[in-house]
Amino acid sequence: MLSTIPLNSLIDEFILKMRRGNKKHIKILMCEIADSLRKQAGQNRIPINLNEILELRKVNDLILEKSRFNFQGELIPKREGFSVILNSEHNQTRKRTTLAHEIGHTLFFDISVMPPKRMITYSKSEEWLCYDFGRCLLMPSEFVKKYVSIYKQTPTPQKIIDLTNLFEVSKNVLLMRITRDFQLWKDTTIFLVEVNKNKLKVNKQSSHKGTRHTFTIDGKNGLIHHEKIKSFIQLLQINQKIQEIDETFSFKNNSYRIEMFRYSSNPVSILCIIRDLNDESIYFENEMTSNYIVNSNQEIVEKVQTTLEDYN
Ligand SMILES: [Zn+2]
Questions:
Q1: If you measure from the C-alpha of residue 76 to the centroid of ligand 1, how many angstroms do you get, rounded to a whole number?
Q2: How far does the centroid of ligand 1 lie from the alpha carbon of residue 183, in Å?
Q3: Ligand 1 centroid vs 160 CA: distance in angstroms?
Q4: 222-258: b or e for each residue (b if 16 or more CB lie within 10 Å)?
Q5: Residue 67 contacts residue 87 (beta carbons within 8 Å)
Q6: Cα–ligand 1 centroid distance for 51 (angstroms)
Q7: Tens digit of pLDDT for each residue in 58-88?
Q8: Could you say which DSSP state residue 177 is in?
Q9: How far is the CA of 230 from the centre of ligand 1 (A)?
Q10: Rounded CA gap, 40 and 111, in Å?
Q11: Rounded to the nearest whole angstrom, what is the distance from the C-alpha of residue 52 to the centroid of ligand 1?
Q12: How many other CB atoms sit within 10 Å of the CB of residue 60?
């Protein structure tokens, strides 16, 4: 189980491991620190309010700055703590993501002295650890268990959007947390598409074994090699009256269901889910009335717990 080890001991352990270059279970430790910090700040419900957590980590100054190119944010040590610079052009959710990430960076500093003193030399891996930390902070595992793992299968795009509102996180953070950290919703291929000047920017979050090879959805190069999928995206792009698509179609003698939801019009941004209908063990017409789902709820809770134990 997640420990009741005091926050300072967890951070000491983290620093020691980093100094020794021992990265084993370091991500788990990051998440334990995030959890401990959150509890110490009295944040026992979602959405997590980062203000008190900022205070605990001596971040006492938020500066909004109009964007430099591709600028996310920056943590700056100063005489009496830290300042965080955020990109004023980012929306609230994105600023929250950056802020949670920057709180992660404070762990690399000794904050018992002022100005805070860096204890670990900066390296690129610090960035990834801070992203992991940020996701854990914004979506604590106990709330993922409570609100997400009730969906044995990937829910509809609309429900996914509801979950982002519940946690006040971006689609990216939510999907990363669920599909990568918890390994849930592997029954579908989930991807986000942004259409910018008719160029598709694709961010693939999860891929189901059945659809993985059938539809090439290349997150790295932003490619979708499937005319049907591209035509649906185009429809959502040009016809503002249509906000969602829910279609079943055949391809190479197999049936698939594709659900798309346009969650932003400028730029056109779409959440897409492809379900492999041939995979009967995981597909149900109506998930709410299926006994299997009710029965397997426990299974999924188990699964999340297993993932957590892996953390320890
Ligand atoms: Zn960073």
A1: 11
A2: 24
A3: 27
A4: bebebeebeebbeebbeeeeeeebeeeeeeeeeebeb
A5: yes
A6: 19
A7: 999 999 998 777 889 999 999 999 999 999 9
A8: I
A9: 34
A10: 16
A11: 20
A12: 13
CA distance 190 to 206: 5
Cα(123) to centroid of ligand 1, in Å? 10
161 or 251: which carries more pLDDT confidence? 161
Reported as a single tens digit per residue, the pLDDT across 111-162 is 999 999 999 999 999 999 999 999 999 999 999 999 998 998 999 999 999 9
Domain boundaries, the chain: 7-138, 143-283
Rounded to 10 degrees, the C-alpha dihedral 281/285/289/293 comes to: 30
Residue 69: the pLDDT is 77
pLDDT given at position 226? 86
Looking at the domain that runs over 143-283, which CATH code has it been given? Answer: 3.30.450
- Nearest C-alpha neighbor of 256 from the set 224, 226, 279: 279
For domain 7-138, say whether CATH 3.30.300.30 is its number. Answer: no
CA of 127 from ligand 1 middle (Å) equals 5
- State pTM to two decimals: 0.85
| Ligand 1 centre distance from Cα of residue 21 (Å) | 19
Tokens of 220: 């790295």
The Cα 81–Cα 1 span in angstroms is 33
